[in-house]
Amino acid sequence: MRFEELPTPCYVVDEALIEKNLNILSGIMERTGAKIILAQKAFSMTTMYPLIGKHLSGTTASGLYEARLGQEEMGKENHVFSPAYREDEIDEIVSICDHIIFNSFSQLEKYKAKALAAGRKIGIRINPECSTQVGHEIYDPCSPGSRFGVRLEDFQPELLEGVSGLHFHTLCQQNSDDLETTLNAVVEKFGQWLPQMEWINFGGGHHITREDYDIPRLEACIRRMQENYGLKVYLEPGEAVALNAGYLVTSVLDMNRNGIEIAIVDTSATCHMPDVLEMPYRPPLFGSGEPGEKPYTYRLGGPTCLTGDVIGDYSFDQPLKNGDRLVFGDMAIYTMVKTNTFNGMPLPAIAVQEKDGNCRVVREFGYQDFKTRLA
User: Fold this and answer.
1) From which residue to which does the signal peptide run (predicted)?
2) Mean pLDDT, the chain, as a whole number?
3) Is 88 annotated among the ligand-binding residues?
4) Which of 77, 79, 80, 26 is nearest to 51 (CA)?
5) Model's pTM, two decimal places?
6) Among candidate residues 27, 67, 84, 73, the one with its CA nearest the CA of residue 51
7) 87 annotated to bind ligand
8) pLDDT tens for residues 15-74?
Protein backbone atom coordinates (compact mmCIF):
# COMPACT_ATOMS: atom_id res chain seq x y z
CA MET A 1 0.00 0.00 0.00
CA ARG A 2 1.30 3.45 -0.87
CA PHE A 3 1.05 6.38 1.52
CA GLU A 4 -1.67 8.05 -0.54
CA GLU A 5 -3.79 4.88 -0.40
CA LEU A 6 -4.07 4.79 3.40
CA PRO A 7 -7.50 5.23 4.97
CA THR A 8 -8.17 8.40 6.94
CA PRO A 9 -7.81 9.28 9.67
CA CYS A 10 -4.63 7.25 10.09
CA TYR A 11 -1.49 7.46 12.20
CA VAL A 12 1.60 6.49 10.23
CA VAL A 13 4.88 5.67 11.97
CA ASP A 14 7.99 5.87 9.80
CA GLU A 15 10.29 2.93 10.55
CA ALA A 16 13.38 4.63 9.08
CA LEU A 17 12.87 7.74 11.21
CA ILE A 18 12.37 5.68 14.37
CA GLU A 19 15.64 3.90 13.62
CA LYS A 20 17.38 7.23 13.03
CA ASN A 21 16.35 8.36 16.52
CA LEU A 22 17.36 5.05 18.04
CA ASN A 23 20.82 5.26 16.48
CA ILE A 24 21.33 8.62 18.18
CA LEU A 25 20.23 7.20 21.54
CA SER A 26 22.27 4.01 21.25
CA GLY A 27 25.32 6.10 20.31
CA ILE A 28 25.04 7.92 23.64
CA MET A 29 24.77 4.58 25.43
CA GLU A 30 27.86 3.25 23.67
CA ARG A 31 29.98 6.33 24.37
CA THR A 32 28.98 6.78 28.02
CA GLY A 33 27.82 3.42 29.34
CA ALA A 34 24.53 5.00 30.42
CA LYS A 35 21.30 3.07 29.96
CA ILE A 36 18.37 4.54 28.04
CA ILE A 37 14.91 3.03 28.39
CA LEU A 38 11.64 3.78 26.61
CA ALA A 39 9.03 5.76 28.55
CA GLN A 40 5.92 4.00 27.29
CA LYS A 41 3.63 6.84 28.36
CA ALA A 42 4.67 8.73 25.22
CA PHE A 43 4.91 5.88 22.73
CA SER A 44 3.72 2.31 23.28
CA MET A 45 3.25 1.01 19.74
CA THR A 46 4.31 -2.58 20.28
CA THR A 47 4.84 -3.19 16.56
CA MET A 48 7.99 -1.10 17.01
CA TYR A 49 9.19 -2.81 20.21
CA PRO A 50 11.43 -5.40 18.50
CA LEU A 51 13.29 -2.57 16.74
CA ILE A 52 13.45 -0.43 19.89
CA GLY A 53 14.64 -3.41 21.92
CA LYS A 54 17.63 -3.86 19.60
CA HIS A 55 18.87 -0.40 20.55
CA LEU A 56 17.65 0.48 24.05
CA SER A 57 17.98 -1.19 27.45
CA GLY A 58 14.31 -1.69 28.20
CA THR A 59 11.14 0.13 29.21
CA THR A 60 9.71 2.18 32.03
CA ALA A 61 6.09 2.20 33.15
CA SER A 62 3.70 4.43 35.05
CA GLY A 63 1.64 1.57 36.42
CA LEU A 64 0.76 -2.09 36.16
CA TYR A 65 -0.58 -2.22 32.61
CA GLU A 66 2.41 -0.45 31.08
CA ALA A 67 4.68 -2.66 33.17
CA ARG A 68 2.95 -5.73 31.76
CA LEU A 69 3.34 -4.36 28.25
CA GLY A 70 7.06 -3.76 28.65
CA GLN A 71 7.63 -7.19 30.15
CA GLU A 72 5.56 -9.04 27.56
CA GLU A 73 6.57 -7.15 24.43
CA MET A 74 10.20 -6.16 25.03
CA GLY A 75 11.33 -8.37 27.88
CA LYS A 76 14.39 -6.36 28.89
CA GLU A 77 14.91 -4.10 31.91
CA ASN A 78 11.49 -3.15 33.24
CA HIS A 79 11.23 -0.07 35.47
CA VAL A 80 8.14 1.41 37.11
CA PHE A 81 7.25 4.60 38.95
CA SER A 82 3.86 5.56 40.34
CA PRO A 83 2.78 8.33 42.72
CA ALA A 84 1.17 5.55 44.77
CA TYR A 85 0.89 1.80 44.21
CA ARG A 86 -2.31 -0.17 44.80
CA GLU A 87 -2.22 -3.01 47.30
CA ASP A 88 -4.06 -5.30 44.89
CA GLU A 89 -1.43 -4.68 42.16
CA ILE A 90 1.87 -4.50 44.02
CA ASP A 91 2.50 -8.26 44.01
CA GLU A 92 2.32 -8.43 40.22
CA ILE A 93 4.40 -5.27 39.86
CA VAL A 94 7.09 -6.77 42.08
CA SER A 95 7.00 -9.97 40.06
CA ILE A 96 7.65 -8.29 36.68
CA CYS A 97 9.62 -5.09 37.41
CA ASP A 98 13.30 -5.08 38.29
CA HIS A 99 13.43 -1.38 39.29
CA ILE A 100 10.61 -0.07 41.49
CA ILE A 101 10.67 3.64 42.30
CA PHE A 102 8.64 5.04 45.17
CA ASN A 103 7.24 8.56 45.36
CA SER A 104 7.28 8.87 49.13
CA PHE A 105 8.89 7.36 52.19
CA SER A 106 5.49 6.12 53.35
CA GLN A 107 5.16 4.04 50.16
CA LEU A 108 8.76 2.92 50.56
CA GLU A 109 8.12 1.72 54.11
CA LYS A 110 4.93 -0.04 53.05
CA TYR A 111 6.36 -2.06 50.16
CA LYS A 112 10.15 -2.10 50.57
CA ALA A 113 10.40 -5.47 52.25
CA LYS A 114 8.30 -7.14 49.57
CA ALA A 115 10.38 -5.63 46.75
CA LEU A 116 13.72 -6.48 48.35
CA ALA A 117 12.61 -10.02 49.10
CA ALA A 118 11.99 -10.46 45.37
CA GLY A 119 15.50 -9.19 44.59
CA ARG A 120 14.30 -5.91 43.06
CA LYS A 121 16.22 -2.64 42.89
CA ILE A 122 14.31 0.06 44.70
CA GLY A 123 14.60 3.83 44.44
CA ILE A 124 13.04 6.97 45.80
CA ARG A 125 11.94 9.90 43.63
CA ILE A 126 13.31 13.24 44.76
CA ASN A 127 12.04 16.75 44.03
CA PRO A 128 14.99 19.15 43.62
CA GLU A 129 12.53 22.08 43.55
CA CYS A 130 14.22 23.44 40.46
CA SER A 131 11.71 24.60 37.85
CA THR A 132 13.19 25.10 34.40
CA GLN A 133 9.97 25.27 32.38
CA VAL A 134 8.31 28.47 31.25
CA GLY A 135 4.64 28.62 30.39
CA HIS A 136 3.82 24.93 30.79
CA GLU A 137 3.11 24.60 34.51
CA ILE A 138 0.84 21.62 33.86
CA TYR A 139 4.00 19.67 32.95
CA ASP A 140 6.27 21.02 35.72
CA PRO A 141 6.87 18.41 38.45
CA CYS A 142 8.70 21.03 40.52
CA SER A 143 5.81 23.50 40.62
CA PRO A 144 4.50 24.52 44.07
CA GLY A 145 2.23 21.86 45.48
CA SER A 146 3.48 19.20 43.07
CA ARG A 147 2.60 15.65 44.08
CA PHE A 148 5.86 14.28 42.64
CA GLY A 149 8.95 13.41 44.63
CA VAL A 150 10.38 14.04 48.09
CA ARG A 151 11.69 17.53 48.86
CA LEU A 152 14.85 17.99 50.90
CA GLU A 153 12.89 19.19 53.93
CA ASP A 154 10.87 15.95 53.89
CA PHE A 155 13.79 13.62 53.17
CA GLN A 156 14.28 10.80 55.70
CA PRO A 157 17.80 9.40 55.32
CA GLU A 158 17.24 7.02 58.22
CA LEU A 159 14.89 5.07 55.94
CA LEU A 160 17.35 4.67 53.04
CA GLU A 161 18.51 1.18 53.99
CA GLY A 162 17.92 -1.04 50.97
CA VAL A 163 17.41 1.92 48.61
CA SER A 164 19.91 1.65 45.75
CA GLY A 165 19.02 4.66 43.64
CA LEU A 166 17.52 8.13 43.34
CA HIS A 167 15.18 9.26 40.58
CA PHE A 168 14.24 12.73 39.43
CA HIS A 169 12.07 13.87 36.54
CA THR A 170 11.71 17.62 36.01
CA LEU A 171 11.93 18.22 32.26
CA CYS A 172 9.48 18.38 29.37
CA GLN A 173 10.71 18.76 25.77
CA GLN A 174 13.90 20.43 27.00
CA ASN A 175 17.57 20.67 26.14
CA SER A 176 20.53 19.50 28.21
CA ASP A 177 21.28 22.95 29.63
CA ASP A 178 18.13 22.55 31.73
CA LEU A 179 19.28 19.08 32.75
CA GLU A 180 22.61 20.56 33.85
CA THR A 181 20.80 23.22 35.90
CA THR A 182 18.63 20.55 37.50
CA LEU A 183 21.58 18.28 38.19
CA ASN A 184 23.33 21.12 40.02
CA ALA A 185 20.28 21.43 42.27
CA VAL A 186 20.18 17.66 42.83
CA VAL A 187 23.83 17.60 43.88
CA GLU A 188 23.44 20.67 46.09
CA LYS A 189 20.43 19.28 47.94
CA PHE A 190 20.89 15.49 47.84
CA GLY A 191 24.59 15.07 47.05
CA GLN A 192 25.48 13.83 50.51
CA TRP A 193 23.49 10.64 49.87
CA LEU A 194 24.74 9.94 46.34
CA PRO A 195 27.89 8.05 47.43
CA GLN A 196 25.75 5.36 49.06
CA MET A 197 23.69 4.81 45.91
CA GLU A 198 24.29 2.44 42.98
CA TRP A 199 22.35 4.32 40.33
CA ILE A 200 20.62 7.55 39.47
CA ASN A 201 17.75 8.05 37.02
CA PHE A 202 17.55 11.38 35.18
CA GLY A 203 13.91 10.72 34.23
CA GLY A 204 12.44 11.86 30.93
CA GLY A 205 11.68 15.06 29.05
CA HIS A 206 15.05 15.06 27.26
CA HIS A 207 14.54 16.08 23.60
CA ILE A 208 17.72 14.24 22.66
CA THR A 209 16.86 13.58 19.02
CA ARG A 210 15.91 17.18 18.27
CA GLU A 211 18.29 18.84 15.81
CA ASP A 212 19.49 21.54 18.22
CA TYR A 213 19.93 19.22 21.22
CA ASP A 214 23.32 19.57 22.94
CA ILE A 215 24.44 15.93 23.18
CA PRO A 216 27.99 16.68 24.46
CA ARG A 217 26.50 18.55 27.42
CA LEU A 218 24.22 15.60 28.16
CA GLU A 219 27.16 13.22 28.05
CA ALA A 220 29.10 15.51 30.40
CA CYS A 221 26.20 15.33 32.87
CA ILE A 222 26.23 11.55 32.66
CA ARG A 223 29.99 11.32 33.20
CA ARG A 224 29.79 13.71 36.14
CA MET A 225 27.60 11.24 38.03
CA GLN A 226 29.70 8.28 36.96
CA GLU A 227 33.08 9.79 37.82
CA ASN A 228 32.16 11.71 40.97
CA TYR A 229 29.89 9.12 42.57
CA GLY A 230 30.43 5.81 40.74
CA LEU A 231 26.75 5.71 39.72
CA LYS A 232 25.08 3.85 36.89
CA VAL A 233 23.02 6.43 34.99
CA TYR A 234 19.58 5.86 33.50
CA LEU A 235 17.56 8.08 31.19
CA GLU A 236 13.97 7.37 30.26
CA PRO A 237 12.89 9.56 27.34
CA GLY A 238 9.66 8.82 25.53
CA GLU A 239 9.35 11.58 22.96
CA ALA A 240 12.99 11.29 21.85
CA VAL A 241 12.38 7.74 20.63
CA ALA A 242 9.64 8.72 18.18
CA LEU A 243 10.19 12.46 17.79
CA ASN A 244 9.25 13.66 14.28
CA ALA A 245 8.82 10.02 13.22
CA GLY A 246 5.07 9.85 12.67
CA TYR A 247 2.21 11.45 10.79
CA LEU A 248 -1.54 11.78 11.06
CA VAL A 249 -3.33 11.70 7.72
CA THR A 250 -6.75 13.30 7.54
CA SER A 251 -9.33 14.21 4.89
CA VAL A 252 -11.41 17.36 4.42
CA LEU A 253 -15.10 16.58 4.93
CA ASP A 254 -16.76 19.94 4.44
CA MET A 255 -16.13 23.66 4.02
CA ASN A 256 -17.97 26.58 5.62
CA ARG A 257 -17.39 30.14 6.74
CA ASN A 258 -17.89 32.20 9.91
CA GLY A 259 -15.69 35.27 9.59
CA ILE A 260 -12.93 32.89 8.50
CA GLU A 261 -12.85 30.01 6.06
CA ILE A 262 -13.37 26.76 7.97
CA ALA A 263 -12.49 23.22 6.91
CA ILE A 264 -13.99 20.31 8.85
CA VAL A 265 -11.67 17.29 8.76
CA ASP A 266 -12.14 13.69 9.87
CA THR A 267 -9.58 14.13 12.63
CA SER A 268 -10.45 15.56 16.05
CA ALA A 269 -8.07 17.56 18.20
CA THR A 270 -10.10 16.47 21.22
CA CYS A 271 -10.02 12.77 20.40
CA HIS A 272 -6.91 12.21 18.32
CA MET A 273 -4.37 14.89 19.26
CA PRO A 274 -5.41 16.14 22.72
CA ASP A 275 -2.05 17.78 23.45
CA VAL A 276 -3.07 20.41 20.89
CA LEU A 277 -5.58 21.58 23.50
CA GLU A 278 -3.70 20.61 26.68
CA MET A 279 -0.24 21.98 25.90
CA PRO A 280 -1.47 23.92 23.86
CA TYR A 281 0.34 23.93 20.53
CA ARG A 282 -0.21 24.15 16.77
CA PRO A 283 0.87 20.89 15.12
CA PRO A 284 3.02 21.06 11.97
CA LEU A 285 1.12 20.49 8.72
CA PHE A 286 3.02 19.64 5.55
CA GLY A 287 2.60 22.12 2.69
CA SER A 288 1.02 24.82 4.84
CA GLY A 289 2.06 28.17 6.26
CA GLU A 290 1.17 30.50 9.09
CA PRO A 291 -2.19 32.28 8.83
CA GLY A 292 -1.95 34.84 6.02
CA GLU A 293 1.45 33.61 4.86
CA LYS A 294 -0.02 31.86 1.82
CA PRO A 295 -3.03 33.06 -0.22
CA TYR A 296 -5.72 30.86 1.37
CA THR A 297 -6.15 30.63 5.14
CA TYR A 298 -8.43 28.11 6.85
CA ARG A 299 -9.32 27.12 10.39
CA LEU A 300 -9.13 23.34 10.65
CA GLY A 301 -11.67 21.81 13.00
CA GLY A 302 -12.82 18.36 14.01
CA PRO A 303 -16.29 16.82 13.67
CA THR A 304 -17.17 16.59 17.39
CA CYS A 305 -19.70 18.76 19.24
CA LEU A 306 -17.00 20.52 21.30
CA THR A 307 -16.73 24.15 20.20
CA GLY A 308 -13.03 24.13 20.98
CA ASP A 309 -12.28 21.10 18.80
CA VAL A 310 -9.99 23.24 16.64
CA ILE A 311 -6.59 22.08 15.41
CA GLY A 312 -5.43 25.53 14.30
CA ASP A 313 -5.30 28.11 11.52
CA TYR A 314 -3.20 27.32 8.45
CA SER A 315 -2.64 28.87 5.03
CA PHE A 316 -2.27 27.10 1.68
CA ASP A 317 -1.15 27.84 -1.87
CA GLN A 318 -4.44 26.55 -3.30
CA PRO A 319 -8.00 26.55 -1.97
CA LEU A 320 -8.98 23.46 0.01
CA LYS A 321 -11.81 21.31 -1.24
CA ASN A 322 -13.76 18.31 0.00
CA GLY A 323 -11.72 15.14 -0.17
CA ASP A 324 -8.29 16.81 0.08
CA ARG A 325 -5.84 14.87 2.22
CA LEU A 326 -3.73 16.71 4.81
CA VAL A 327 -0.73 15.31 6.65
CA PHE A 328 0.24 16.48 10.14
CA GLY A 329 3.78 15.87 11.37
CA ASP A 330 5.24 14.70 14.70
CA MET A 331 2.17 12.61 15.42
CA ALA A 332 3.76 9.47 16.90
CA ILE A 333 4.22 10.83 20.43
CA TYR A 334 1.44 11.52 22.97
CA THR A 335 -1.21 10.86 20.31
CA MET A 336 -2.03 7.17 20.01
CA VAL A 337 -1.55 6.76 23.78
CA LYS A 338 -4.08 9.52 24.50
CA THR A 339 -6.84 8.85 21.98
CA ASN A 340 -10.45 8.64 23.12
CA THR A 341 -13.85 8.03 21.56
CA PHE A 342 -15.72 11.10 22.81
CA ASN A 343 -18.87 11.65 20.72
CA GLY A 344 -18.43 8.13 19.34
CA MET A 345 -15.53 9.32 17.23
CA PRO A 346 -13.80 6.38 15.49
CA LEU A 347 -10.16 5.91 16.42
CA PRO A 348 -7.65 6.43 13.60
CA ALA A 349 -6.11 3.40 11.96
CA ILE A 350 -2.44 2.76 12.71
CA ALA A 351 0.08 2.06 9.95
CA VAL A 352 3.81 1.58 9.52
CA GLN A 353 5.76 3.10 6.67
CA GLU A 354 8.56 0.66 5.97
CA LYS A 355 12.02 1.59 4.79
CA ASP A 356 11.14 0.91 1.15
CA GLY A 357 8.29 3.44 1.32
CA ASN A 358 5.51 0.87 1.40
CA CYS A 359 2.86 1.18 4.10
CA ARG A 360 0.96 -1.49 5.97
CA VAL A 361 -1.98 -0.99 8.27
CA VAL A 362 -1.30 -2.79 11.56
CA ARG A 363 -4.50 -1.86 13.41
CA GLU A 364 -7.97 -0.66 12.51
CA PHE A 365 -10.79 0.19 14.89
CA GLY A 366 -14.56 -0.05 14.61
CA TYR A 367 -17.82 0.33 16.44
CA GLN A 368 -17.09 -2.49 18.88
CA ASP A 369 -14.00 -0.66 20.16
CA PHE A 370 -16.29 2.23 21.11
CA LYS A 371 -19.14 0.11 22.42
CA THR A 372 -17.10 -2.19 24.65
CA ARG A 373 -15.32 0.64 26.49
CA LEU A 374 -18.47 1.22 28.55
CA ALA A 375 -21.00 -1.17 30.01
Assistant:
1) none
2) 97
3) no
4) 26
5) 0.96
6) 73
7) no
8) 999 999 999 999 999 999 999 999 999 999 999 999 999 999 999 999 999 999 999 999
